[in-house]
Design brief:
Blueprint: H1 3-19, H2 26-33, H3 39-43, H4 47-69, H5 75-90, H6 94-108, H7 111-134, H8 140-161, H9 167-178
Helix pairs in contact: 1-2, 1-4, 1-6, 4-6, 4-7, 5-8, 5-9, 6-7, 7-8, 8-9
């Protein structure tokens, strides 16, 4: 990726994570990235293109993190990975988590963003569904949806309130429901 484009995407994610969707303009991205005026629009001609670029950049980062952490060999290992990622996403990675949710919400009324978010979700499911199948889930697709929904819901709760309950019992409950008893996380 050209350095200017990478700097623009980094700045876009920072703006989304600190100021929400309204903070994202080409001019603000240029200023935040320390780029000459008009640089961002050379790579992303429209606001839609900039939003989709931000989604794709965020997804690339998250996919690399998740792929590096998976696959655990047990439900307990999966639970540990999820809890560690959750802590990272609500502390040092809080800004990127806020950017992700800003983009999710933007996707409600913006088809191109929604499609980009859906592609990212499909990529994550491609990692999680087979893992849950290997761990013994009778319905790995349903289990993945339940697990990812619980995880994202807890993230949103923590992000919106600045704190929240420990996600481990919630995620453990979902895994217990999805997996056969012998590989379920211990009590």
């Amino acid at each position: 990726m050209p350095p200017t484009k990478a700097r623009a995407l980094q700045a876009a994610l920072e703006l989304l994570g600190t100021g929400g969707i309204r903070a994202l303009t080409h001019a603000r991205v240029d200023a935040r990235a320390g780029l000459p005026q008009g640089s961002t629009s050379n790579h992303f001609r429209t606001r839609s293109a900039l939003l989709v670029g931000a989604v794709e950049e965020l997804e690339a980062r998250e996919a690399a993190e998740v792929a590096g952490a998976l696959p655990p060999d047990s439900a307990t290992g999966l639970l540990e990975v999820l809890c560690a990622q959750f802590r990272a996403s609500t502390t040092g990675g809080r800004e990127l988590t806020a950017a992700r949710f800003a983009l999710f919400v933007e996707g409600i009324g913006h088809a191109e963003v929604r499609d980009a978010v859906s592609r990212g979700r499909a990529g994550f499911e491609a990692l999680v569904v087979p893992l849950l199948g290997r761990l013994g889930a009778a319905q790995p697709e349903v289990a993945a949806t339940a697990l990812m929904s619980a995880y994202e819901g807890m993230l949103l709760y923590h992000l919106a309130r600045g704190h929240g309950p420990d996600p481990k019992p919630v995620l453990e409950l979902v895994l217990r429901a999805a997996l056969p008893s012998p590989s379920a996380p211990p009590r």
